[in-house]
Amino acid sequence: MYLQDQLVVIDRSSDDNIVNKTEYKNKRAYWSFYSIFLAIILLIVSNAIFSQDSILSSSRLKKLSLEELMDIEVTSVSMRPEKLTETASAIQVITGKNIQRSGVIRLPEALRLVSNLQIGQTNSHDWAITARGFNGLPSSGGILANKLLVMIDGRLVYNPLFGGVYWDVQNTLMEDIDRIEVVSGPGGTLWGANAVNGVINVLTKSAKETQGLYLSGAAGSLLNDYGGIRQGGRSRRDSNLYFRIYAQHFKQGSTTLRNGKSAKDRWNMIQGGFRMDYYPSEKNTITLQSDLYGGEENNDSLVKYTLTDGQNVLASFTHLFSDKSNLKIQAYYDRTYRKTPSSTLPFFYNLNTYNIDIQHRFAIGSRQSVLYGIGYRLQQDQTARTFIPLNKDMPLYSGFVQDEITVAPGLLKLTIGSKFLHNVFTGFEFQPCTRIGWTPNENNTVWTSVSRSVRTPTRFDADITVTDIKFKSEKVIAYELGYRILPIEQLSFSFATFYNIYSDLRSLDSAASPPIVLRNSQQAESWGFEFSGIFQATGWWQLRGGYTYFDRTIYPTNKKVLPISVAFESVDPKNIFMLQSILDFRKGIQLDLVARYTDELPEVSATIPAVPAYFTFDVRLGWQIKAFEISVIGQNLLEEYHRENSTSKIPRSIYARLKCRF
After folding, report:
1. Is the dihedral of CA 229, 103, 166, 374 positive or negative?
2. DSSP state of 611
3. Residues 352, 380: contact at Cβ < 8 Å?
4. Which parts of 307-410 fold into alpha helices (H)?
5. Helix, strand, coil: what percent of the chain each, to 5?
6. Nearest CA-CA partner of 42 in 317, 311, 289
7. DSSP states of 211-241 as a string?
8. Positive or negative CA dihedral for 506, 507, 511, 513?
9. Beta bridge partners of 214
């Protein structure tokens, strides 16, 4: 069930923006055809212009030892490559191998492979995902989870309508993901507003790393069918130019309502795109990439169905002055479109985003590294009559500076910095952070930090009603203490504890006209800890997993706050556990297990009951022989159904999959 079904009363009169279902099915079909057409044309052109270097050795998954895993470089904490073992932050990394060995098809499923996220599947196509709490009502489709910033190759996918992420349309080809960096805690100093409780940074492989032909197909119960194709090549005229193109399509069946009937929320999506990487010299890199998609989602409610489509294009240029100095310029355009042409509850949303960022890093002496940058983003949207005004321009100006100071070489590092921005809703905002990292030796890292971050208002917060009330930004002061250790060569542990103080949280207040208004009449405190580890038991068996504990207290600041306001902001499990086992047997046989436990969600009201705790596991049995990989994947195997929200039950799912790499 969509949030607009429960909370937003939309004008049911005729609307020039609402057209009949046939027209929008034709529009969706157009974009779907365009995706396939683009992929076919690029394949034909590439065969004529590019050589098709086939790297057969890339068809085998690289077996990483723990030492190699710990040498993985991450960029989400300081915007520069640094070893995971030396990173002074609560960060977990999902590698491409972790994703491929789990057998998942979609990005939200891949995010279950870390334990520092609270994740709930709302129905067949919607998800609620957050870090360190504040996921909102379990029946809201995830659009109230507004304190987590998500990027794909530096392109922001956080939307300014309700906040949060439309996870249904984030369908990156899993085979192309290099890694996913999940940072718990504020990241506003570098990444800007809305990185209040965490940052998810999805990083795809370069075109150079995805040469040759890749094919994949799957079919089963909940996942009705899936197909993906990717072609990578290299220019015959310039050996420094690499490319890849891809297309994928899937259909997914329906979940089940609490009464046992079908939720009628089946859906389908088609997506295509390309990426080119050019290395004109050792110091310069140019990247150009684009995606486009279209789909239709059903829903057993007054909404009935939703049509989605979108396009994006991103270009970046990186220049290395030296090992300690570089310049990066990145620009992108993104369009997101959603339409529910219902006579009862129509919904319409079109968003165009234009963004450019410039970052420069340089050294001062041998002990200081300064990073600064400026950015401009313009978001222009068109909405239904619920929002006033219907169309809005939302410019955002930003700048940041961060200084890494080596207090004691190889031992103690101090990082200070702040983000400054100006937005159309609240004007000027600042987000400072101070972080200290202590590394007594290569096997131990201790860190602590204090930071301030903000969540700027959305259209839903500021433009849903006409009142004299000006919605403020939500604010958090966050304290963190963490420790990472490698006690033996085969074992790594990471532990982080946190305490957050929130002010000006969103609330639903009683009023005269309209009867309910959105205000900043709540405060909160949250606390907890996160534990994660990796154990390389043998050369052919790896275990990784973690446990997260979260708790919070939310209280009103005036007597007009309605009781539902607490649940509106946060209905989250206290305990989460995840374990992934990766086993390689002889003759290419693979056996993989992902087990997870999620604590109960408390009752909100008679219509939004408690969601019981659940434990379940996924199993993948695969066989890899030369360029072919055959696997059978079972998801949520422990029970026929389990609930992750107050409306739908998630069924057991089994599907078979074939991959080919040439």
Report:
1. negative
2. B
3. yes
4. none
5. 15, 55, 30
6. 289
7. -EEEEEEEEESSEEEEEEEEEEEEESS-TTE
8. positive
9. 230, 661
DSSP H or E run through 68: helix 66-70
Q: Which DSSP category does 70 fall into?
A: H
Neighbours of 606 (CB within 10 A): 6
Structure tokens at 73: 């470089």
The answer to whether 412 and 426 are in contact (CB under 8 A) is no
Place of tokens 């203490």: 481
Cβ-contact 393, 424 below 8 angstroms: yes
The structure tokens listed for 249 are 């399509």
Beta bridge partners of 270: 249, 294
Q: Which two tokens stand for residue 152?
A: 């794909």
Do residues 534 and 542 lie in contact, with contact meaning Cβ atoms separated by under 8 Å?
A: yes
- 579 residue type, one letter: L
- Quote the CA–CA distance of 131 and 194 in Å, as a whole number: 12
Backbone angles phi, psi at 319, to 5 degrees: -125, 130
pLDDT in tens, 70-101: 667 888 888 888 888 778 888 999 999 999 99
Does 66 have pLDDT greater than 80? no
Alpha carbon separation from 446 to 292, 405, 604 (Å, rounded):
43, 16, 39
In angstroms, rounded to a whole number, what is the distance separating the alpha carbons of residues 267 and 169?
11
Nearest CA-CA partner of 427 in 199, 193, 196, 195? 193
CA dihedral angle for residue 77, residue 81, residue 86, residue 90, rounded to 10 degrees = 30
Rounded to whole angstroms, the Cα distance separating 270 from 77 reads 33
Tens-place pLDDT, residues 267-282: 999 999 999 999 999 9
Q: Is 57 helix (H, G, I), strand (E, B) or coil?
A: helix
pLDDT score of 3 more than 60? no
pTM of this prediction? 0.89
**pLDDT on residue 69:** 60
User: What is the band of 61 on the pLDDT scale with cuts at 50, 70, 90?
Assistant: very low
* Angstrom distance (rounded) from CA 8 to CA 577: 35
Whether omega before 395 lies within 30 degrees of 0, making that bond cis, reads no
Query: Tokens representing 389?
Result: 């005004």
Q: What is the pLDDT of residues 204-239, one digit of tens each?
A: 999 999 999 999 999 999 999 999 999 999 999 999
